[in-house]
Amino acid sequence: MAGSVSRRVALDRLKACIEGMAGLQELGWESPEFIKWRNDAAARVRHIFAVDPKRVGEFTWRLSVISRPRFGSDKDRRETFARGLTEVRATLESMLQEVEDFWVESAGADTAVAETGHTVRPDSREVFVVHGRDDGLKSTVARFLEKLDLTPIILHERPDEGRTVIEKLLEESERVAYAVVLLTPDDEGRLVGSEEQLVPRARQNVVFELGYLLGKLGRSGVKALYSEGVELPSDYEGVLYTPMDARGEWKLQLCREMKAAGLEVDANRAL
Length: 271
Prior knowledge:
By secondary structure, the chain is an alpha/beta fold. The chain has two domains: 7-111, no CATH class; 119-270, Rossmann fold, CATH 3.40.50.10140. Helix content is 44%, strand content 12%. The protein has nine helices and nine strands. The protein has helices at residues 7-19, 24-27, 32-48, 53-64, 77-102, 135-147, 165-172, 204-217, 249-260; strands spanning 112-113, 119-120, 126-130, 151-154, 178-183, 187-189, 199-201, 222-226, 242-243. It has a five-stranded parallel beta sheet with strand order 4-3-5-8-9, with helices on both faces. The protein has a two-stranded antiparallel sheet with strand order 1-2. Strands 6-7 form a two-stranded antiparallel ribbon. Helix 1 packs antiparallel against helix 3 (32-48), helix 1 (7-19) packs antiparallel against helix 5 and helix 3 packs antiparallel against helix 4.
């Protein structure tokens, strides 16, 4: 049995995750030390088990709710955080035991994994494009990717072949090297009971697909571009969004991000 990295690397990184948990309960879920550990742990597990996106997604979800009481629970956040840390530690120890007992020495993976935690598919030139109702912006981004000798994958343009929308998303995203998500002001919303004005928001399916692709490709494998004035999802804080400016500076920024993720991109074509 093997994963995306060698047995030795997997053991070292899982041990680092477990050792790094020392003192986190006392520091709390809002401390910079815990936030850094959480991000590092997610990246390491994503790196080790890149060939098993479901497992990575489950672990990432567990980290995201580590201090959030279950619905209907009377436990406070401190107690929930302590229990969450215990559960995460047990999960990491189980992963470590699995690697020690069952992994062969060879990595045996068909994909290479960058140090950023992004699964690099060296033979792929396909880029997933998630969009809302702004067809003009969708076309602009798609034509730009083609100019870079990349192939944009737009879900509604792919044949259904009897598949549901979610099946198409899961299958079509399997072979892409990168994803670009367009956040455009297609919907409006506000907090229930609030008298504030409605604010422009991206469509729910766009936000859902952004979250899915982040879990699948890692933060370095996804770039979110937004139209001025649109509300940005707060759970994606800490990652820079890029505005679709009229001067086209977003093109150079997108090129830099894709190159950093392992794609061969000629930035001169962006000019």
